[in-house]
Specification:
single chain; 170 residues; alpha+beta; six-stranded antiparallel β-sheet; two-stranded antiparallel ribbon; globular; disordered C terminus
């Protein structure tokens, strides 16, 4: 399921079962996890500029969107942990998990978006960039992985959305 949350912030998110890559390589991505990953949350944020070129403006935009994702991700992670499940927020810049010890592999958010949503991507300046159907190359992808069932993750997201907790500034 894919939907927008917080129309002012204009983000898109979708909940999915874990990708084949995540299932196959979970021990190398999340070595401390003793439970299987059951859900992935993909968060897409539009940028004020196209990310196909590397400039000071695009780098500043990516830093801000990364910060916003962490704020949103930690709010979701707190709810997931309260229910007794395991969760990892993957740093979009490094591909390494936060809240869990990193493993030998890194998660590629762009590859996750391609596999789960079917969006195209393009490689520029050593980086892969998602090509969003509405936002083009002006999109910043992020991923959260959890042992919680997708339906429960959807319920958490609905509560957060209703409470206005998503992506507040500051």
């Amino acid at each position: 399921m894919s939907r927008a949350i917080n129309q002012q912030a204009r983000i898109q998110y979708s909940v999915h079962p874990p990708s084949r890559f995540l299932v196959s390589h979970q021990a190398k991505l999340l070595p401390d996890w003793s439970c299987p990953a059951r859900s992935m949350l993909i968060v897409l944020q539009p940028c004020n500029c196209d990310l196909l070129e590397r400039t000071l403006i695009t780098e500043a935009q990516k830093r801000e969107l990364r910060r916003q994702f962490f704020q949103f991700g930690y709010a979701i992670a707190a709810q997931i942990k309260r229910l007794g499940y395991t969760v990892a927020i993957f740093d979009p810049r490094t591909g390494l998990p936060l809240l869990s010890r990193p493993g030998a592999l890194r998660l590629d958010d762009v590859a996750i978006v391609r596999a789960a949503l079917g969006y195209q991507s393009i490689h520029r300046h050593g980086c892969a960039v998602v090509i969003h159907p509405l936002w083009g190359g002006a999109v910043y992808p992020s991923t959260l992985v959890s042992s919680i069932e997708p339906v429960l993750l959807e319920q958490i997201l609905t509560r957060i959305e209703a409470g206005g907790e998503a992506l507040r500034d500051g």
